[in-house]
Amino acid sequence: MTMLISKQLTKSDIEKSLLIPASSFDSIFALEEGHFCDINVIDNTGKAWIFPCFIQQSEGMEAPVVSIGWLKFLCGKNIRVGDVVFLHQKPMDDNSTCTQLKIEVKRKIRLLGEDIWASIE
């Protein structure tokens, strides 16, 4: 699996929309301001999600934003500020040359004096 995006979640990411680091996004998708694309992902449970994404101006820079679908994805998962969202690219299970995107949210917890990352389902 190849990690494409890793982002520590902010209050705005959890309450409004996910702002994706442009440098990470540009290497995956070609998208210009005002245009949309759908990001199709699979979560840890195997459920498919579609996140419509658009480019928005933010602090003088273009930033990819995901809102519709993202908030629904978060619903009921007890996601917190500081959790980290990962987007991975992985080969399809059927040994074809196609790949799929996998989304995962993890939380750092301290267990027996050591930090570990636990997946949030």
In short:
The chain is mainly beta.
What does the main sheet amount to?
8 strands, mixed
Mean pLDDT value? 82
**Residues in helix, %:** 10-25%
Show unreliable segments: none
Q: How big a fraction of the residues is strand?
A: over 45%
Number of strands: 8
Q: What features would you describe in this structure?
A:
This protein has 121 residues and is mainly β. Helix content is 12%, strand content 50%. The chain is built from three helices and eight strands. It has helices spanning 11-15, 22-26, 70-74; strands at 2-8, 18-19, 36-42, 48-58, 61-66, 84-91, 99-111, 114-119. Strands 1, 2, 3, 4, 5, 6, 7 and 8 form an eight-stranded mixed β-sheet that branches. The mean pLDDT is 82.
